[in-house]
Structure to design on (411 residues):
C-alpha cells in the first residue's frame, strides 16, 4: 500500500483503467446489476460518493459506495476488496459489513462499487452542536469501537484511520467501524503516509515500524473527542497553525515535571543545535520529501508539540533511531520548534477547566486515555484489553450510582 504504487497508471491486477477522475453520477431510480436501485445520495468524500440503494432481491436499504474514476482511485477500490477478503467471510456487529462488490461504467470510465450496511450517520455528525456525549454513552460507544478494532486486528488488519468520521452510529448508540479500505494488512505495511495527522501515533509521525497498536493510540484520542466534541491533539485547538515557534530548549531542568512524565532527562554540556528548517537530512523517496518538507511536516511538528505538552516528552530512547527523528528533534532529543502559546495543561485540567467536567470523571478519563496514549507501542494494551477495562469501569460506575440511588429512596 505504498505511496508510489498509487501513482501507477495501471490497476493492481495489471489492467488498464481510464485516467479521468470524477464522481459517479447515476440517475435516481437507476437499477444496477438488476438488483440495486438508486434512491439518493448519502454523502461524499475525496475518494468516493455514497448512495442509498434498495436491494430489490431482499427489499432492504443498503449503502452503495462508488469510488471516483481513475487509476489512483481504482487502486483504493482494489485495496478495499483485499481488506474485505481478509475477513474470510467473518462478520462483527461493530464492523461495517460488505454484501457485494462490482464495477460500473460511465462515460468510458470504470468505477469500483461496494454495497455495505446502511446506518443513520457517523459520530462526527452526531457530535456536531453538542458538548460531547455523556460519560455512559461515551463508554458504550468506546467499547463497541474497541471490540470492532480487535476483530480487525485478529484478522491481521490495521485500520490506520480511526476517527469519528469513520465510526457510523444509530440513535440507539450502536456503532460500526467503516472505511476499512483505508487499512492495510499487517504483513504488507510499507508506508508512513497513512491516516489523519491528528489521530496518528508517534511512531507513524517519526518513522518507526508500526503495527495494530497505532489503532489503539487513535482509540485513546477518540475517547476525548466523544466526551468533548474536540480533538485532543488537534493543533488548531491549542495553538494557531501560523503561531510563532521557538526551540523547546531546557525550560525545565532535570527532575522537573517533564521527567516525572517519563520524558528523557536533558543532557549536560551538549551543543544545542535547535533550528527550524535547513536540517542536514536526506530522504529516500519523493513521498518522504513531501512528508517532511511541506505543510504536512509542519502539521506533524505541531502535533508532536501537542503530545509533548499533554503527556510528556517523546523519549529518544524509543524513537532516537526512527527514520524522521532528526527532522523533528535536535541531538539532545528536544523538539526543534514549539509554538510559543502552546497549552501546557494536562488532560484532566483541560477537561475540568475548558469543558466543565466533574473532577473525578476527568481524572478517570485521563487515566483511561493514558492506557492507550503510551509512547512505547509495546506497552500499549490491545483494543480488546481496552474494551475489557472500560466495561469493568462502566459496571462499577453503574453499581455505585445504583447504591447511591437506593440509599436516597430509603431516606
Amino acid at each position: 500500500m505504498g505511496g508510489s504504487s498509487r501513482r501507477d497508471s495501471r490497476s493492481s491486477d495489471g489492467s488498464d483503467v481510464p485516467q479521468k477522475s470524477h464522481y459517479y453520477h447515476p440517475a435516481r431510480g437507476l437499477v444496477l446489476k438488476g438488483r440495486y436501485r438508486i434512491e439518493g445520495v448519502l454523502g461524499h468524500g475525496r475518494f468516493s460518493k455514497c448512495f442509498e440503494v434498495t436491494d430489490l432481491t431482499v427489499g432492504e436499504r443498503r449503502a452503495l459506495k462508488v469510488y471516483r474514476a481513475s487509476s489512483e482511485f481504482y487502486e483504493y477500490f482494489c485495496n478495499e476488496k483485499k481488506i474485505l477478503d481478509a475477513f474470510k467471510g467473518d462478520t462483527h456487529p461493530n464492523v461495517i459489513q460488505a454484501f457485494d462488490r462490482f464495477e460500473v461504467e460511465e462515460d468510458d470510465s470504470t468505477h469500483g462499487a461496494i454495497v455495505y450496511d446502511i446506518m443513520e450517520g457517523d459520530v462526527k455528525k452526531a457530535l456536531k452542536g453538542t458538548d460531547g456525549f455523556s460519560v455512559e454513552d461515551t463508554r458504550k460507544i468506546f467499547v463497541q469501537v474497541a471490540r470492532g478494532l480487535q476483530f480487525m486486528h485478529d484478522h491481521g488488519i490495521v485500520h490506520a484511520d480511526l476517527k469519528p468520521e469513520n465510526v457510523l452510529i444509530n440513535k440507539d448508540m450502536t456503532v460500526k467501524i467503516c472505511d476499512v479500505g483505508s487499512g492495510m494488512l499487517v504483513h504488507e505495511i510499507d508506508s508512513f503516509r497513512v491516516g489523519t495527522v491528528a489521530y496518528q501515533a508517534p511512531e507513524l509521525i517519526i518513522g518507526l515500524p508500526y503495527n495494530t497498536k497505532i489503532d489503539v493510540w487513535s482509540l485513546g484520542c477518540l475517547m476525548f473527542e466523544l466526551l468533548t466534541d474536540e480533538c485532543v491533539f488537534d493543533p488548531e485547538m491549542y495553538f494557531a497553525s501560523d503561531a510563532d515557534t521557538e526551540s523547546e530548549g531546557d525550560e525545565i531542568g532535570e527532575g522537573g515535571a517533564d521527567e516525572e512524565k517519563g520524558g528523557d532527562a536533558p543532557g549536560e554540556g551538549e551543543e544545542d543545535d535547535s533550528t527550524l528548517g535547513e536540517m542536514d537530512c536526506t530522504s529516500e523517496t519523493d513521498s518522504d520529501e513531501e512528508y517532511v518538507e511541506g505543510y504536512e511536516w509542519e502539521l506533524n511538528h505541531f502535533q508532536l508539540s501537542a503530545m509533548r505538552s499533554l503527556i510528556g516528552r517523546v523519549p529518544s530512547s524509543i524513537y532516537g533511531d526512527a527514520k524522521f527523528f532528526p527532522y523533528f528533534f535536535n541531538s539532545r532529543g528536544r523538539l526543534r520548534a514549539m509554538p510559543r502559546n502552546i497549552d501546557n495543561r494536562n488532560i484532566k485540567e483541560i477537561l475540568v477547566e475548558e469543558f466543565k467536567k466533574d473532577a473525578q470523571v476527568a481524572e478517570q478519563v485521563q487515566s483511561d486515555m493514558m492506557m492507550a496514549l503510551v509512547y512505547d507501542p509495546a506497552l500499549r494494551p490491545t483494543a480488546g484489553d481496552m474494551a475489557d477495562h472500560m466495561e469493568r469501569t462502566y459496571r462499577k460506575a453503574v453499581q455505585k450510582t445504583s447504591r447511591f440511588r437506593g440509599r436516597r429512596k430509603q431516606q
